[in-house]
Design goal:
alpha+beta; Rossmann fold; BirA Bifunctional Protein, domain 2; about 30% strand; about 425 residues; single chain; 5-stranded mixed sheet; 2 domains; 5-stranded mixed β-barrel; about 25% helix
Length: about 425
């Protein structure tokens, strides 16, 4: 893409009302636009990141048998009434037409909706198990909408729901989802801790979260860097040891340390709570009527983008992991030279390239390249002659390459 055609621009200053690095960097870099507290629009660069993350998630969910759907975002109140969640604080309620009382809500989760849908298609044990997922906007009335995309009132989420004949089958799948989640986060360049946590409004028992260590995080975990097991402070027995600095991991015996963290995913054993509310039943092999056992599994897609920025940035800007970067390489033409031929060759090789062809100073181009944070920066100038000056965003070393070397690096790296 030609940077001159990009309608957004890198701002000269950071936003005044933001403290979290993800908010400051994503807004200044032109990745997102803040409409109001906790509500953001994704601009071309930011949306490319979201699409990369979403595709990774889709591939891993499809690999464990997930079937993608898209459910309604507007829900009749009867859904949440059925599970006593209509009056949960985070629900956005909608008053339609001339009504005085709200009769709908906009989606904050979909357990109720998918349970009712499943009821139409599940009759026998032969119809089980199955799993359905979606990537959709969720709405939650967060009273403390802050920290950029880490705590929003409107956000993108992947929610997966599984349906089983018994708890054993559900927990077998629960483990498969946990493994798939590890792959998702690894592919996005993030180290996550598999964290024991409380269930909250979603589940009937303890659950598990995937946490990323970050100073801006709102959670506190006791984490093992050896096996990556952790416990959320709210449920952890490890915290009872107070000032003990030699706490051992209950899984592997290695040392445990206290960390601030960001929750990027969670998995919930739902049992039959939602099946009972919507009469979601099946006939087993003996002809007995039983309730379907469900599981629920979420990944915050937009939060994952924000978490990546929290982990991968420096004083100059973002440093995107290559798998989720909006483009692979930022091509800069400095001075009175053109890199158009090089840009065209990269495009022919299907290399994702952002070409800064603007008539601005070399200094401005270099500063903005660091702020946008693509994995590679390639500079063509009068000084480079017939070669290309190549630098990884995460390294200080600059290497001068001929065109063939550069093309090989871009195609195979």
């Amino acid at each position: 893409m030609l940077q001159s055609k990009l309608f957004t621009k890198v701002e000269r200053k950071f936003p005044k009302d933001e403290e979290a690095p993800n908010a400051r960097l994503l807004e200044r870099g032109g990745f997102v636009y803040k409409n109001s507290a906790g509500v953001y629009s994704y601009l071309p660069l930011g949306w490319r990141v979201i699409k990369k993350i979403s595709e990774i998630i889709r591939e891993e969910m499809d690999a464990i048998g997930g079937q993608e759907v898209l459910m309604s975002a507007l829900h009749d109140k009867r859904y949440l009434k059925a599970t006593n969640r209509w009056d949960v604080d985070v629900v956005f309620k909608v008053i339609s037409g001339g009504e005085k009382e709200p009769s709908f809500n906009i989606s904050w989760t979909h357990e109720e909706v998918i349970a009712e849908i499943a009821r139409k298609y599940v009759n026998s044990y032969r119809d089980l198990p199955f799993a359905a997922y979606q990537i959709q906007t969720k709405f939650r009335h967060e009273p403390r909408a802050k920290s950029g995309l880490l705590r929003g009132r409107e956000f993108l989420m992947k929610d997966l729901y599984s349906f089983h004949a018994d708890e054993k089958d559900m927990y077998d799948y629960y483990g498969k989802v946990a493994d798939a989640y590890r792959k998702v986060f690894e592919r996005c360049g993030l180290k996550t801790y598999y964290t024991l946590a409380a269930g909250g409004d979603f589940t009937i028992s303890n659950t598990h979260e995937f946490q990323v260590a970050a100073e801006v995080g709102e959670d506190t975990i006791f984490a093992c860097d050896s096996c990556l097991y952790a416990e959320n402070k709210e449920v952890s027995k490890l915290s009872a040891k107070g000032g003990d600095t030699n706490i051992k991991c209950p899984k592997c015996g290695a040392k445990v340390s206290e960390k601030k963290s960001i929750e990027v995913g969670n998995i919930f054993p739902l049992g039959t709570r939602y099946a009972e509310a919507f009469d979601l039943t099946f006939l087993d092999k003996e002809g007995n009527k039983k309730f379907v056992v469900m599981g629920s599994y979420g990944i915050g897609v937009s939060r994952l983008m924000a978490a990546a920025v929290e982990v991968y940035h420096d004083e100059n800007g973002i440093a995107w992991p290559e798998t989720i970067a909006p483009f692979k390489v930022h091509l800069l033409a400095l001075g009175n030279v053109s890199a158009k031929d090089l840009y065209n060759d990269l495009q022919k090789r299907n290399v994702e390239v952002l070409y800064d062809d603007r008539n601005v100073s070399p200094g401005e181009k270099l500063v903005e390249a660091d702020m946008i944070g693509l994995p590679f920066r390639a500079v063509v100038s009068e000084k480079t002659d017939e070669k290309v000056e190549v630098k990884r965003r995460t390294e200080d070393k600059v290497k001068l390459m001929n065109k063939n070397e550069f093309m090989k690096l871009m195609s195979n790296d």
